[in-house]
Design a protein that fits this description.
Strand order of the largest sheet: 1-2-4-3-5-6-7
Shape: globular
Radius of gyration: 21 Å
Strand content: 15-25%
Number of strands: 15
Helix content: 25-40%
Structural class: alpha/beta
Distance between the termini: 41 Å
C-alpha cells in the first residue's frame, strides 16, 4: 500500500481470499440482497453502499504501471480536485470524498481483479473512471450485474454510449467514432484527395477509431492505402512505421496509446524520405508524449481536443485554469500542472461533482439516473462551446471537439468547435 496525494493507492496483488472477504459498511436504512446498504424514506430500497451523510467512497482503476502508464497522471488531477472540495468546500454535497485508486497495468484480467476488489472489499459507492477500452470491456458485465455505477470511464469507445444493455456504465470524453469524424471533416476540406496510411492498436480502441474514420470518409475521394496494427505487448512500432513509409500515403493517421504514440512520432521524424501530414489521436496527444520525441520533430502535427490546454496562453487569465493550477500546486506539489492529463483529471472530477450533486437520490440508482439526464451542463475546464448532454437514449456526454496543431512548444487551436451530433447526426448502436 502506498500514499497517493491525499487519497490511497493499494497494490495489485488481489487474492481469492481477499475478494471473498468483502468488508461490509454500517447499515443505513437496511441491507440489500448482496449485503449492501439501502436508503429509506423517499429513496427507499435504493443502494447506499459506500455513501453516508458525511462520506462518499469512489474507486478508480488506471494503468499506473505498464505500457500505458502515462495515464497515471490523470488520477493526480482528480485527487487535487477532491482535496480542494473536501478541504475548502465542505466536501461534495456535504460529503468528504475518498478516492481509492488501483493499478491494472493495462491488463484486462488484472482490471477484473481490481474492480471486484473495489466493489466487494472496498465497498465503493461507484467506480469513477476505469481506464482503457480493453479493461472496461472486461469489467462492465460485472458492474452492471452488481448494479454499481461505472461513471465516466476513461475511454472513448462508442459502445459505452450506444449500448442499451449496460445502463450503469457511461463514458465521458468524445467517443472515438466522433473523433474520427472530426479528422475526416478536416481532410475533406483541406486534403480532399488524401491517401492515408494508418497505424492502430489491435484491440477495440484501435478498431473503433479506424472503423469510424472509414465510415466518415465513405463517398469521398479520400482513401486508405496502407494499414498496420500493433499489440500492446510489442516492444516497438518501428517495423510497422517502415512498412507504412513504403506506401504513397500523404497523410498518416496515428491511432495509438502514449508509449506507442511517442514511438510512431519518433519513427516518422527519422523516416526523412516520407513526409506525410501526421494526425495523432487525442489520447496520445499530450505534451508528455511529444516532449521525448523533441518538439522540433513534431512541428505541425495535428490532433483534436475538447478541454483547455494548461500551456495555452489564451487561458492564462481564465478563472478555472488559475484555480486548477493553484490547487494542483497546493495539493499535488510534485505534479506539473502543465501536463494535460492532470487537467483532464480535474475536468472529469468536476463533471462527476456536477452529476452527483444533481442526483435527486444520493444512491447508486440516483447517480445512474443523473448521469443519463445531463442537459447542456457547463464544465469550466472544457473548451467554450463544449458541454455535457445525455438522455436515456444518448449515452455520449461530450461529442464536440476542435482541431489543433502543434507549433513551437504547444498546441494551437484550429478553426471552430465541431459538434459532431449536428454535423454528422446522432451516433447509435
Amino acid at each position: 500500500m502506498r500514499s497517493f496525494g491525499g487519497g490511497t493507492v493499494r497494490g495489485t496483488a488481489a487474492t481469492a481470499a481477499v475478494l471473498l472477504a468483502a468488508t461490509m459498511l454500517a447499515s443505513c436504512g437496511g441491507r440489500g440482497e448482496d449485503g449492501g446498504t439501502q436508503a429509506s424514506g423517499e429513496c427507499q430500497g435504493q443502494q447506499t453502499t459506500g455513501i453516508t451523510d458525511k462520506t462518499l467512497k469512489l474507486g478508480g482503476v488506471y494503468p499506473l504501471s505498464g505500457p500505458a502508464s502515462a495515464y497515471g497522471d490523470i488520477p493526480k488531477g482528480i485527487q487535487a480536485y477532491f482535496e480542494y472540495v473536501n478541504k475548502e468546500k465542505g466536501g461534495l454535497d456535504g460529503r468528504q470524498v475518498e478516492f481509492v485508486v488501483r493499478d491494472d497495468g493495462y491488463q484486462p484480467p488484472k482490471a477484473v481483479e481490481e474492480v471486484r476488489r473495489l466493489v466487494e472489499q472496498e465497498q465503493v459507492f461507484a467506480l469513477f473512471q476505469t481506464l482503457g477500452t480493453p479493461s472496461t470491456t472486461a469489467t462492465w458485465d460485472y458492474t452492471n450485474q452488481r448494479k454499481v455505477p461505472q461513471v465516466f470511464v476513461a475511454t472513448g469507445a462508442s459502445k459505452w454510449g450506444a449500448d442499451t444493455k449496460h445502463p450503469w456504465t457511461i463514458g465521458w470524453q468524445p467517443n472515438y467514432v466522433s473523433e474520427a469524424r472530426v479528422y475526416a471533416k478536416y481532410l475533406r476540406t483541406e486534403k480532399p484527395n488524401a491517401k492515408v496510411a494508418v497505424l492502430y492498436q489491435n484491440d477495440d480502441f484501435g478498431e473503433d477509431l479506424l472503423g469510424g474514420f472509414k465510415k466518415a470518409i465513405a463517398g469521398s475521394q479520400i482513401s486508405i492505402v496502407a494499414e498496420q496494427s500493433y499489440e500492446v505487448t510489442d516492444p516497438s512500432v518501428e517495423p510497422q512505421m517502415r512498412n507504412l513509409s513504403g506506401s504513397d500515403a500523404d497523410v498518416f493517421l496515428n491511432i495509438t496509446t502514449p508509449k506507442f504514440g511517442s514511438q510512431a512520432l519518433a519513427a516518422d521524424a527519422k523516416l526523412t524520405d516520407w513526409n506525410p501530414l501526421h494526425i495523432v489521436n487525442n489520447v496520445a496527444a499530450s505534451i508528455t508524449v511529444l516532449r521525448p520525441v523533441g518538439f522540433e520533430n513534431v512541428q505541425n502535427v495535428l490532433s483534436s481536443t475538447y478541454y483547455k490546454d494548461p500551456v495555452d496562453p489564451q487561458w492564462a487569465d481564465d478563472a478555472e485554469m488559475k484555480l486548477y493550477k493553484a490547487k494542483m500546486k497546493q495539493y499535488q506539489p510534485n505534479a506539473d500542472p502543465n501536463v494535460p492529463y492532470h487537467a483532464f483529471g480535474w475536468a472529469v472530477a468536476d463533471s462527476f461533482a456536477k452529476t452527483f450533486t444533481a442526483a435527486k437520490c444520493k444512491t447508486r440508482e440516483g447517480l445512474r439516473d443523473s448521469m443519463r439526464n445531463l442537459n447542456n451542463v457547463q464544465v469550466p475546464m472544457l473548451l467554450p462551446g463544449v458541454t455535457m448532454t445525455t438522455s436515456k437514449d444518448d449515452g455520449f456526454p461530450i461529442e464536440s471537439m476542435q482541431m489543433m496543431q502543434f507549433k513551437g512548444e504547444r498546441w494551437q487551436l484550429l478553426g471552430e468547435v465541431i459538434d459532431t451530433r449536428k454535423e454528422f447526426g446522432p451516433l447509435t448502436g
